[in-house]
Design goal:
6-stranded mixed sheet; alpha+beta
């Protein structure tokens, strides 16, 4: 089966900082690239050393990409959270959980040795469009 890839791009989320797309749609599957806490307007890291502020921005960026792909949080089936420190797990988990009040997606959380631009958190997602 040969299905075309559709590139998703929106100015409501930060532009890619490398050779990747904000998301790719193949059939009903939406593969969202990892989002770090960059401002869509300036391309600069937001939140400084505040993991809560950074997580809020990451979730806003992911929501913008999901919306551009024609879906929302209810369509997300898988996420990966990358943390600079597992010490931030509770804070990130509480914010993340607000976006999935029922039937949360499958998830993996990993402590990364380093994230782009010195971010404290990065999250990617896979969704299924209905």
């Amino acid at each position: 089966m040969n299905q075309e890839k559709m590139v998703i791009s929106t100015s409501a989320a930060p532009a890619a900082i490398g050779p990747y797309s904000q998301a790719i749609v193949v059939g009903s599957l939406v593969f969202c690239s990892g989002q770090i806490p960059l401002s869509p307007e300036t391309g600069q890291l937001v939140g400084g050393g505040d993991v809560a502020a950074q997580t809020e921005q990451v979730m806003a960026n992911l929501q913008a990409v999901l919306t551009a792909a024609g879906c929302g949080w209810q369509n997300v089936v898988r996420c990966t959270i990358y943390l600079g420190s597992m010490g931030d797990f509770g804070t990130v988990n509480a914010i993340y959980g607000r976006f999935f009040p029922a039937a949360p997606p499958a998830r993996t959380t990993i402590q990364a040795a380093g994230l782009p631009r010195g971010a404290l958190v990065e999250i990617d997602a896979i969704a299924v469009r209905s």
